Request: fold
Amino acid sequence: MTDWQAEAALDNARWCDLMCRAHGVPGTFTPLAWTNPSRTPPYYPDAVTLSREATAADLLPHLDAGPGASIKDSFATLDLPGFDVLFEAQWIHREAPAGTGAPWQVVQDEEGLAAWERACGLSGLFLPALLDEATVVHAPGLGSGAVLTATGPAVGVSNVFGDWDGVLAAAAELFPGRPLVGYESDPAPALRHGFTAIGPLRVWLRT
Reply:
């Protein structure tokens, strides 16, 4: 049986690494964790655990563990003295959605990406290099959108804003037959759209 929580954590770590590479600060993968020795872009962790066996000793020597360091504890198992829990969330999984032919669009260029970023309330974070490996989608008029990352057996869904129905339709059209994974601090909207909560995670912050 596929460990969808582990798959979701790995896909998310790959997305974090892609974001960091776009900003010129790539991280490093081991079987236990993804870590970054440099401070990562805003909203992105300095480490993501990939195994339930990972400990603080597998992470802290490989990152800037001073104030501002953040760690995504993908299985909510870590003991991190000196860190506080920033937030808790749930990994989510959904079997492959059926296509509905919703007319969502794929961002193709820098101008489109900048417009998408403004629509979701951010600025200067999403750089054009992301489009080489991630699929950024949106509804006509930019009222809804998401990022899709197809790095493994499932498609990662992140940065969702607006209409979940459209997200599912876009994923079904672009990646037919692929299940979906992601995480949400408030999973209720995703659960109403056929997702299942598959395990907890925590994000820790050193202040």
